[in-house]
């Protein structure tokens, strides 16, 4: 219905048009600037720098939200905004419904920012926004449902299904592709500002997609940074330069990605907790890496089922992401390219295995 309404409004007569903002190019949406490489993608919308109008075609009423969640019956998550509920649309599509709690620490501004961004930024490795509700105090974002939870859950020592090394690398490649798109495929570039394993969701095919864009910012110039008096992000993933300079940039995302990659390699969370005290994952891995003892930091649950050259390259990539000086960090083009090489090494070795085997 929404596509038919849009066709009628814009007088699009081509039967093949299915709602893509960029395709066919003759019917690109007003105000858009799209690139047409292997995949068409939006590179700008009316000079977007953080303020967009929400699409009326994707609005849900509060009554509809209550119905699709079966009166908010099943909670599948909870974050800074509030609770996330499982839902099902009238056509049977499974969705995740994020409700804004009145006591939310993040509030309307970040909630609205996430909706604004995901209405116009689309990529196979970014979680898709299906719609939103904005009625009085009832606010909700409706997303595609990611049935396999998040990467952190799969890395937990309490999860009996152990991710193989090839699966971990594929998750890293997927997340890197999503982040590379935000940094280089969007004009102006976008920084996520809260990249972490709980914000990397997995669908039924174990494809990874980045979520939670409430803290994201777009900039007119690539070299711009976001000045703030309070940290944005999660302890363990925060750019150490933020505490000195008070700003976030693309390099802040790259630092966070390096921490994510070390989590995938080691299985440990960003902050390792023990009776002796807490330790940052970097402080734990660095002495081993400096000695060349890569084997000792690899998740023992992998049972040596990996190509050591592949792991070595992944460790080198992670280290290239996390220098204290942001200028010394790799960019996402390099990170993505080398991660793909690492994955190729693992696959060619014939050691990849299915989860749980």
TrEMBL record:
SMART domains: S_TKc. It comes from the Eukaryota. It is found in: Membrane. GO terms for molecular function: ATP binding; protein serine/threonine kinase activity. Coiled coil: none annotated. GO terms for cellular component: membrane. Its main location: membrane. Keywords: ATP-binding, Kinase, Membrane, Nucleotide-binding, Phosphoprotein, Receptor, Serine/threonine-protein kinase, Transferase, Transmembrane, Transmembrane helix. Residues 70-343 form the Protein kinase domain. It is a single-pass membrane protein. It holds the Pfam family PK_Tyr_Ser-Thr. SUPFAM superfamilies: Protein kinase-like (PK-like). ATP binds at residue 98. Belongs to the protein kinase superfamily. This is Protein kinase domain-containing protein. It comes from Eucalyptus grandis (Flooded gum). The lineage of its organism: Eukaryota, Viridiplantae, Streptophyta, Embryophyta, Tracheophyta.
